# Entry
Amino acid sequence: MAQDDLKAGDTCEWTISGMDCGSCANKIKDAVGRLPGVSDVSVTLMSEKLRLTLRDDKTGRDRIEAVVKSLGYGIAPRGSAAAKKGFVLPDAAEKVHDHDHGHGHSEDDGHDHQLTTESPDEGHGSAGHVHDDPAERGKRWYQTGKGKLVIFTALLLGAAWAVEFLFPGPVGYWAFVAACVIGVAPVARRAFAAARMGQVFTIESLMTIAAIGALFIGAAEEAALVVFLFAVGEVLEGVAANKARDGIRALANLVPKTAMLVEGDQTREVAAETLTVGQIVLARPGDRIPADGEIVDGTSGVDDSPVTGESVPVTKGPGAAVYAGSINTEAALRIRVTKAAEDNTISRIIRLVEEAEEARAPTERFIDRFSRWYMPLIVMLSVLVIVVPPLTTGAPWETWIYRGLTLLLIGCPCALVISVPASIASALSSGAKRGLLMKGGAVIEAAAKAHAVAFDKTGTLTHGRPQVTDVVPTGDAPEAEVVRLAAAVESGSSHPLALAILKRADGMALPAATEAKAIMGKGVAATVEGRALTVSSPRYAAEQGALQGEWIRRASALEEEGKTVAVLFEGVSALGLIAMRDEPRADAVEAVRQLRAMDITPTILTGDNPRTAAAIADSLGTEFRAEMLPEDKLNVIREMAAAGGVMMVGDGINDAPALKQASVGVAMGSGTDVALETADAAILRDRVTDIPTTIRLARATMANIRQNVTIALGLKAVFLVTTVLGITGLWLAILADTGATVLVTLNALRLLAYDPEKGA
# Structure
């Protein structure tokens, strides 16, 4: 979009490359947020996205890009050709071969955008907080700019040691000075660029001060070593950050880049992203399905595990819905496209995961606020360490300057800032692979605190499709005749109970029904084969005198079993009872058992009568509330929430007020629009056991976050004390900083391998 086309207050998005830690994201956010006409700035580390609201009469897009580049990061408009070439976007706009993760590019990949405002040898190939060139993602570490930097600084350091060995004395000392100055110069340049934008306390500035200060007190050898270790740490941070992003990128790789388009009797290969609604595509055995669609010809096993996490292939035939990214396992299928590439299930999941990064957890917001005053506090403490002992006790200035400079390096909060978003991103990616979608850190934190789960019954704990369980003739007519006549009466109805009776009558020749009419809230009447027949509730049949004595008791007994009873009668004579039940899902009992084991109380909220509700609740082992209207459910959720966190599980359509009122609202649904886009979380596999699995994943994530914060602050505290006492020096300080960042990132990556289902 050209700059002239922008209107005041437009939302703009870019893809940023090279962010290795939380401080990187904060640096970009703060710098861009200072520009006039810029508001609502959001920078997400794992999805590498910059989003903001821009008034182009105040600041142009080129100014935004220049600021980001000056900080040493790559930037391209989201969805642009440059972004598609140089940046691996976790976006529906990019489609990658299913066998290629899309991380590698050839040398002549055609990068036509400058990644920094420096010259090529001063940008990504320089020392300092150098950043990941996306063209290098498929290369080995030593082939990347960061890797080459490590090798270069290692050679400088080795050369200095060689010079000192051959020419001990001043010559060797100046060799280390040269190695330090050459290595730290680009870092200082970037520190100055950040300082001009009001960001004085950055890792670049601390690194520069520490290195130059070390030179002034004669610690040139250690200063050069610190520059080298800083470069090593940068490589490790970049590798760890990209590994964390791979889980999100892998989602985009599920959809094949090409599709076989059917045109008459011919097929031709086209780009999957060009498919439009209504076109027919061919999916051969072993192919990934290129678009969300509906099977029009063929029957085959379809493996939905890439989309929903369901491990067992499902046999699907004409009329069945399929998802982009699923695998056709057995026979050729012709599929009518029902959603464009940008709207398919995978694309929507990716968008939800990306947007979820922006919904930050309360813990993350606290850490962010803490880190903003933590670094200035460390700088102030460093100054006191440098000044107070020499002035008060006459201690050597060189000793305390050295310790103060070491303390500066410890002060960088990179590990602390990334400790939460790295865990959240890993959890979101891990959940998405299993069909568990949680919309952000706030949802994960709330789910981890849930002490009660409220279930809507129909369509959640049950299938939502009643089935006939009992046919009880009350007269001379046999069971088949009762079903045939009742189905004829119900033939014009779409009520779930009517559909259950009609399904039971499959294969029967039904007579025509005339003069059909609905008896509001009570039943249906019609004339069938000249007989005035009615199918109604037991209460209405009793009111009409058609159900009496023993049969009333029999109908009540069936209802106590959790069944809904319909009575077929003619005049005042009952012909039969038809009992139906919406059967619980096969895994509902196991889900309730798991919740109980986790000290979580499950409760059914239903509009059914108390006898039916009690029967279902007893069979599952849950609490229940019956005859509840939507407003009643809302009030119950409020009561439960007053005692602690509560999760509400529904179908994503009904009970919207209760879903919103709950600490976490979870929609059940197989990838439907409603299930994906309503509530706070969605379960794609329609498995009730995924509810305790989601809570288990949330709890594991919060435990991982606590571990990360402990690692980050613990290492800082230990090295702060040892530095002041003179036990550790500059090179260990830089290891403490970058090492902590790498440790918390690797710890967060453990969530990618964590299986929350095994905790059952």
